[in-house]
Amino acid sequence: AWAVAADIRQALQECDEAGRPIVLLGHSMGAKVAICYAAMYPEDIAGLIIEDMDLRTKNRKTKPLGTVELQRLRAFDRSFESWEAALAALQSFGYGAERIAQWREDGRVFQKEDGTWWSGINPLAQYLARKHVLGAIGAREWVA
Description:
With 144 residues, this protein is an alpha+beta fold. Among the domains are: 1-54, no CATH class; 77-121, no CATH class. Helix content is 45%, strand content 15%. The chain is built from 6 helices and 5 strands. The protein has a 3-stranded antiparallel sheet. A two-stranded parallel ribbon has the order 1-2. Helix 2 (29-40) links the parallel strand 1 and strand 2. The longest helix is centred in the N-terminal third of the chain and has 13 residues, at 2-14. The protein starts with a helix and ends in a 10-residue tail after the last helix.
């Protein structure tokens, strides 16, 4: 599913559709592909429609994080005093400068009226999506 998601992005880039937010529809196995795409390229997604996805037991699990890394994710503050502070914080979670700059251009990281900056990107939410949705081992994983 991850490789197919990357292929979809490549096809969009070749059609000059990259850079415009898209609504992605996935049915059955295509739903997992759509979810993988959204996890890999959240800046591309305006909406996600998932239809008839089967959650069967799987043998793989998302690698658990250590206590320190999980605490760091939970402590992530999405409000910043400056663009530079937002950039540095997001880079510290492994996001590339070019990707973050694109989020700024797309309005996912933006300056508020009071001069502070806000990140629509939340590393904890992305980790939880990978753990509980993309790496689900069954329906009970959906229980909060």
